[in-house]
Design a protein that fits this description.
It is a single chain. By secondary structure, this protein is of the alpha/beta class. The chain has nine helices and eleven strands. The protein is 29% helix and 19% strand. The protein starts with a strand and ends in a 17-residue tail after the last strand.
Length: 314
Amino acid sequence: MTRHATITGVGSVLPPRLVPNTWFEDKVETSDAWIRERTGIVARHFVDDGVVTSDLAVDAARIALETAGISAEQIDIIVCASVTGDTPFPATAVWVQEKLGLSCPAFDVNAACAGFSYGLATATAFVQAGMADTVLLLGAEVFSRILDFHDRQTCVLFGDGAGATIIQAADAPGIEGTVLGADGTAAEILIMPGGGSREPATADTVARQRHRIQMPNGREVFKRAVTEMAASCREVLEKNGHTTDDVDLLIPHHRYDVIAKLHQAGQVRKQESVDEGVLVSGRFPQKQRALFSPFIVTPFPKKKAAGRAKRKGT
């Protein structure tokens, strides 16, 4: 019998500290209007001192476990997508494992913006191969710790937060397909150059902000984000026998005005608004197929709510 993988629970958390665009006005040459016009961003969340990536990941994981209706002890593997882990090693997933009181395998995926997609493909493969029945997949970042607050190209773009999903074995496909890709020729258009074996940490690298996010070519980053998202959407749909007419909900990694650009290019049928509660509550709208670029999922079956506490606002 063919094994399939499906998402049975999701959770997400944001730090309580909300940082509006005006916060940056005395740090770099920018304004609320400038940021809104070029990015669509109004505010972002930053963690407080003492909060680390695994703290956010654990909070998101507990919500995902609740929405899936399972206990932490049922987790077979933890996969965490992050480039701002607690430590270079051990993996952030290991710190999550320790905080959840588990002893299962745990490892990180370092793929930056594509991290969750790579993590989902990995978790799906583990389930389909019979190596795990339940995988905890996390995406967590504390970008505020690696931002250069003298660089207006990057410091206004990133925030902190975490999301979690429970991936489980199922009789029918829930995760219908994934598409992955990479282009090493563009590796340096968005990079944190310092801290690795190529440029070990020294007083000089710290002074030159080499351990902060750098984006030498923001225009190229944006162009690739739009074109590659469109291409990956087409590929994953074709690969799984779908057309854009089959898609009810498109949830991009990028900000929402990117959808409008794709729409203008004829790559999506319509622009959909996304209610945050859809994801926090762990339920997709019924009879809808969601396209999380670049992978397709269908609604997972509802769990019985008897005996489970309800979370406010979900």
